[in-house]
Amino acid sequence: MTYQERLLRAIPGGAHTYSRGYDQYPENAPQILERADGVYTYDLKGNKFLDYGMALRAVNSGYANKQINDAAIKQINFGNNLTRASVIELQAAELLIDMIDSVDMVKFTKNGSTATTSAIKLSRAYTKRDLVVRCADHAFFSYDDWFIGSTPANLGILEKDIQNTKMFTYNDIDSLKKIFNTYSGQISCVILEPSVTEHPKDNFLQKVKDLCNQNGAVFILDEMITGFRWHLKGAQYYYGIEPDLCTFGKAMANGFSVAAIAGKREIMQQGSIEFQGTERLFMLSTTHGAEMSGLGAFVETMKFMRTNNVIEHLWDYGSKLVSLMNSTAKKFDLEKNFVAGGIECSPYYLTFDKKGQNSLGLRTLFSQEMVKNGVLIPWISISHGHGEDELKLTKKALENTFEIYKKAVDEGFEKYLIGDVIKPVFRKYN
Fold first, then answer.
1. Burial environment of residue 149 by CB neighbours within 10 A (0 to 12, 13 to 18, 19 or more)
2. Phi and psi at residue 43, in whole multiples of 5°?
3. What is the CATH number that goes with domain 3-61+309-415?
4. What topology does CATH give the domain 66-307?
5. For 25-34, how does the pLDDT look when each residue is reduced to its tens digit (9 = 90+)?
6. Positive or negative: CA dihedral 267, 272, 273, 275
7. Exposed, middle or buried by CB within 10 Å (0-12, 13-18, 19+), for 405?
8. 0.85 exceeded by the pTM?
């Protein structure tokens, strides 16, 4: 029995997030990984891969970072999870409050979905309204009903939950105005990422905030990815905007399980207990939310990032990588069939067929050939450990890959692809 078969037998989907499922990778990608170090991952056979996945963007200071790991181990030796609040719990909370200008209070949890759903609950309680408005262009906010119901993968979601979520388009303020006009007095909150593949245009984020303020809705920025990548103080600082609520996760603890819901005191304190006689909101309660090892890792990750100018490195390396990918594609006359772009600290690549149509088949083939050359690149996530040596390795892999990719564009990817084409995560049918 293969590792893939064993994984599917033991775990629904074969992994604990669908983005790690076998349907997201080419046939020749390693089915299971044993360890990682810096920016390299290793399978059980000892095969080494330069990694641009970086644990789904959760690691931006390098795998197995000793400084950060030692801080986590220190907290493990202190007991890791205590009967009452721990010293590191308070230190971590005060650190985040001091770092992020919009944050008066914070509550930690273990994953981003829990944090964003807590933000939705707070908003509904604060406004006494039901409707949630989310950005349609942003790929993922939560595994909970309010989000999944708005995707094609809505099996098991009640119709009322589907109807309670409305969608608008990023950088299109009129699409949001239309929703506010249609559902006047019904919208509890608007949730979006500050940016993903493009910067906000024409003061877009400020206009979203203004619409929320004018209509009594809570303005939520999901910074799971942008936080501690665009800027140490968040993309909200980079773009000069302060939300009512914000959420963080992913790289805030360099791969340790830490996420957070944070924001304005008047909204956050609804989840508190000291106001006698007020109706109680059971905001968020989790045994492991304040696990000391993760919070120790968060505090140390912030130290490491400051000391080593990690943010600056992400922007610099990303710019070099995008330039390298596009120049190499041009060398093979593939500039219309392979395009790298996006925001430099978090770039993307796109694959197009001869007709100019986005092609998952060619994307799978590209990933397959890069794996053959020792590079795991399902998407592009940059870490502190990506440097000049990694650029050289990537350049060689790209050149070897584009030799095959060129033929596949001309003759059809089916001739060169082994196995199935990767599939969208959010799809109606398997």
1. buried
2. -90, 180
3. 3.90.1150.10
4. Aspartate Aminotransferase; domain 2 (3.40.640)
5. 999 999 999 9
6. negative
7. buried
8. yes
